[in-house]
Model the fold of this input.
Amino acid sequence: MSRTPLDTVEHAAATPDVELPWAELGLKKDEYERVVEILGRRPTGAELAMYSVMWSEHCSYKSSKVHLRQFGEKAPESDALLVGIGENAGVVDVGQGYAVTFKVESHNHPSYVEPYQGAATGVGGIVRDIIAMGARPVAVVDPLRFGAADHPDTKRVLPGVVAGIGGYGNCLGLPNIGGEVVFDACYQGNPLVNAGAIGVMRHEDIHLAKASGAGNKVILYGARTGGDGIGGASILASETFDDAKPSKRPAVQVGDPFQEKLLIECTLEAFAEKLVVGIQDLGAAGLSCATSELASNGSGGMRVTLDDVPLRDSTLSPEEILMSESQERMCAVVEPEKVDRFLEICEKWDVIATVIGEVTDGDRLEIYWHGGKIVDVDPRTVAHEGPVYERPYARPAWQDALQADDANKLPRPRSAEELRAQVLKLVASPNQASKKWITQQYDHFVQGNTVLAMPEDSGMIRIDEETGLGVAIATDGNGRYAKLDPYTGAQLALAEAYRNVAATGAKPLAVSDCLNFGSPEDPAVMWQFAEAVRGLADGCRQLGTPVTGGNVSLYNQTGEAAIHPTPVVAVLGVIDDVARRTPVAFQEEGQLLYLLGDTREEFGGSAWSQVVHDHLGGLPPEVDLERERLLAEILISASRDGMIDSAHDLSDGGLIQAVVESALLGGKGARLVVPDGLDAFTFLLSESAGRAIVAVPRSEEVRFTDMCGARGLPATRIGVVDGDTVEIQGEFDLPLTELREAHENTIPALLA
Amino acid sequence: MTARIGVVTFPGSLDDRDTQRAIRLAGAEPVALWHKDKDLKQVDAVVLCGGFSYGDYLRAGAIARFSPVMDTLVDQAKAGLPVLGICNGFQILTEAHLLPGAMLGNDHLHFICRDQKLRVENAETAWTSDYTAGQEISIPLKNMDGRYVADAYTLDKLEAEGRVAFRYLTRGEAAEGYGNPNGSLNDIAGITNDAGNVVGLMPHPEHATEPLIGTGRTDGLPFFTSILKKLVTA
Done:
């Protein structure tokens, strides 16, 4: 068999007319021409492979970049931010010398194709981002969205995704402490599988992805490189070489959590001995991304010998090696005298480690294969100077009609009996029902520091056993609200996550986001995206919580039908002593229930409008971020000073949903009275933002109401924790046994 | 004086730090042991902790059982060294034939993590003397392969000799942690060897040792105080 000559840099310069399959690799004509212009010649096959993956939407953020800049431009002054946007993950100061890093990413498309592996590798990727900052991962969270709960394909996708998250995360020894599960027909062909992780380190241990110091060695360690996760590279390879190789490569990567666990332990041991100058994980775009980012963030260049990369499949072409997304790999930059010790640690953990190159004092990234130079580029042009698009956007024509279709005008229950039936239907609906069948497939006890886990308002982890210092995280998003008004919808997601963190007693510090949208080539989608980013950036400025990083997932669209715009927001908070945390469950009979905040007639996008009327229209609830901030301050003070024994934020499903959850978790009922000025329906089911219910011990009532009064937060006594029914006086009774059956049987009946 | 209790870390062990913490909370001194090391560092007892040693590849516990540390451990356990196997540790003990029977995949085919109600059946082993026989406790369970099986002869023998140490409580609501969570024969959650020095169970006592953390219960702490008392008074 004969092979075409190796496509070296010299060969490329000498053969300017060779046609390369840039279109098949996803590059536009002008993008390819730009590569030629940058290089002053046609790219080699290997260079084309690198540019095509690094300039993809996923890696380059080319459609979203112009909007995302607002997160930096509008960032509030914050002492808490140690590392901001642009690194593997942001880093936040939480006091006592500790720093916390956290991030949320999407793994949407692979999880639809292959639910188990797609979701599993999503967990793996986000965890490597965390260790690449120098932190020990301490928890994961998973915001998930699926098609209609009763659609046959949901029964394929959801159990696979849940098993994948559990199978991978449980095996890593990371407690899963939060997230969401939402069903909506709009996600039928585009489930959203977002994965978040938190890591903890000391301030002095922060590591960054940069390669500095000429002569320092570049070490690739972890799994061998295989043919998985290669998208377009096989097209390129088949044009370059003969056909003596497997033709179809799987585009979804396969995870090995055991390998990842070893990678975590071995990386942390190397950090502890201060052996690492710079580090980068290999995720999307694999070695192309790791080498170009390390080199472009550092002070020098880099020379890599691709022949030294350990392979699972010896027939891989250099292009494929550069593009492979094989999981569980990392790249470290290590001073020469520390290389032996680094390799020793890897050997201790049975992790394969290989020196594949070194930092040079030039400014080029040079990659060699079989003695020939196949890549010679300025790494910045690969990693940071990709195309930037100002995609056209326009408010869709249908937006006005959607907003005019007012949910407040939908027929309401006409009797107490009908209201009771609707409440029962609501707490049993898939979105409002207990997700225990799902969350009990995740380990939430491992590491022995879990203070709160779902279904609490936020997950909470103790990070210092002596002082009780802890961190809390909540993720929220409501695509229905965002569809009605993306600007407000994004702020509502932020407000809810912020409120959820405060409800557990923690002070919100910083934000990460995962922005899930349809195709950026549709001006209507692009408008939704632009509005959501603007809303989130404005909201973060007002709440004083900077965005530390995040992820954009576009093209969540089947044909013309895009998903609801779905910005998912994660808020990280800190609590000085986890012993002061506030749980959701009612604790003691006789405690007084207070509703904090104002209740208005707000049913646009509500769970009620969806479950009872299958309706989406009108405007989402109003947002008042100053009120959110005040509510949070009250919740935090009340927790710290022991004035409340339980708290629950009000969001989708309204007050009754929150009361039912607190009652079922605590095994204690409640007697409620409809406050003056409200009708029972609005009291129970409106979704006005900026609200929470709290249970106040009688001995603390005066102190608590005085505090609310002095600070100007409306606090309305609505009842008492009591008995084994939820009773709305003068309206109806719901025994806990009946509620439990309704609330807990839905999901197993649909999916088990 | 206190006792030194070893905790073995295999590749893929997850609860090694948690187990060390539980030992410390009970007042004993935890000693880290490494799977490649035959040396048990003269510890007074050993805990094989939970996790996915070797990724549970092949079969849970099947590869870890061949680690160098196990050679020494098996010999010393037969000579009376107290050994506790939790979850994956229990699986390793059955693979190493220190305890009879085997663990299969949960009957419902899912990982399950919940606070589990148990009854202490044997309070006379090295690891259970701080409980009373018949005591009902609640400690976290989290596993994929927790279904205890053994042949009829072995089961009869275990029952007749009082070697079922813990049983899942089946009388109440699943929502409250009652019920056999995995299809284990005879509702067996844990067993002991004939001498009472080797105990294995699927639930995780090390996750129930501090108020506020995990389930907020401390029902698992007596495992560690039991062994400490035994060693210190011995």
